[in-house]
Write the structure tokens for this entry.
Amino acid sequence: MSTADVQVISVGGSIIAPDQPDVDFLKKFHQAIVSYLQEDENRKLIMVSGGGAPARQYQEAYRSVVDEASAEEQDWIGIAATRLNARLLKALFGEYCRNEVVIDPTAVESFHGRVLIAAGWKPGFSTDNDAVVLAERFGADTVINLSNIEKIYTADPKTDPEARPIDQISWADFRKMVGDQWSPGRNLPFDPVAARRGAEIGLRVISAAGRDIPNILAILEKKSFVGSVIGPQ
């Protein structure tokens, strides 16, 4: 497939299920995506689901009971949560999604409907990395990373009053910010493992607010948008 055929969206768990499934968001997101697909029969989307509240809550329960919690087990718990959210997305887009939920992005060769839903794969990284793998496999040059933040900041704005929003940043500078190591539950705008692979293949990542439906459509339609761009300089 060419880049014109498919776009990849990493749908953060923080917007699917911030505390519980956000029904209001899901209704608006579903309506907008269906409208987008209906405007052009050649449009296809890959959506990769994050874990959200179920991942955090169950990981915390595990850590609270076990003195030396395993990072691998925490990842598997998070992966299970991504698969629950992905199953919800598949149900919502059922008429457009004919494949089963993808849990190994290296194993899928094609998809037959208009939407492909993917979830967590294995420990060692987040679903951001799965989105990068799928973008590479299906020839997409951009991953649209939707979360609960409008832009990437130079630091955590909740704790650092000097933090500033970033409109555009190179992979090299972004990787200096986030480092190279993944740990379960780490709150970062884009997974360090995914960032390393994204830099290697020259991918572009747009980080934007997931609940801003008009802005999501603007990104999909290649119009002016609000967000941060990570990519080659």
User: Anything to note?
Assistant: The chain is about 40% helix and 15% strand. The longest strand covers residues 6-11.
